[in-house]
Design goal:
82% helix, extended
């Protein structure tokens, strides 16, 4: 009976740990998303009217881009795990899929570029593209500098992004 209770307790504890890890990951993702919204809004100097029109379109773009990039990551992971056992035919198939996904990513930018230009003046669209690259660089730099220093890495004590 003690073994059953021990095993049951262990299963519950393990599932609670998994839930906590998933929640931490989700909270971190939401924090980064909020930081990105604030960063881009400030960098491209969105007005209230522009922000109302821009953010739904940008969020849709971002969601689609994330899906494409996730497919690319899966392809990379599959290749890395199986590269010694992949036939030449399968390699060609993977390469074709890689090119298809890269084209999809470029087409996505082209489609949404036209939508961004309808909402924002060209100078703000260019600032958007620059701000995206700068924000990504900022996050990578913070990760390198604060690797392993807790869940709040990349933020100062007020939860704000320091200026670049």
């Amino acid at each position: 009976m003690r073994k059953v209770i021990f095993i049951f307790s262990f299963i519950i504890l393990g599932s609670q740990c998994m839930i906590t890890i998933a929640q931490d990951r989700e909270e971190r993702h939401e924090r980064i998303k909020a930081m990105k919204i604030a960063y881009i809004t400030e960098r491209i100097e969105l007005t209230t009217d522009e922000a109302e029109k821009f953010w739904p379109v940008y969020n849709d773009y971002e969601s689609r881009k994330i899906n494409t990039h996730e497919e690319l990551r899966k392809l990379h992971r599959y290749y890395a795990e199986n590269q010694d056992n992949i036939t030449e035919e399968k390699q060609v198939e993977l390469l074709n899929k890689y090119i298809k996904l890269q084209k999809q990513d470029a087409e996505l930018l082209t489609i949404y570029h036209d939508k961004f230009i309808e909402i924002l003046p060209p100078d703000k669209v260019m600032k958007l593209y620059i701000a995206e690259v700068q924000f990504k660089s900022y996050l990578l730099r913070q990760l390198r500098e604060h690797k392993g220093q807790g869940p709040d890495r990349g933020q100062d004590r007020r939860g704000q992004i320091p200026p670049l």
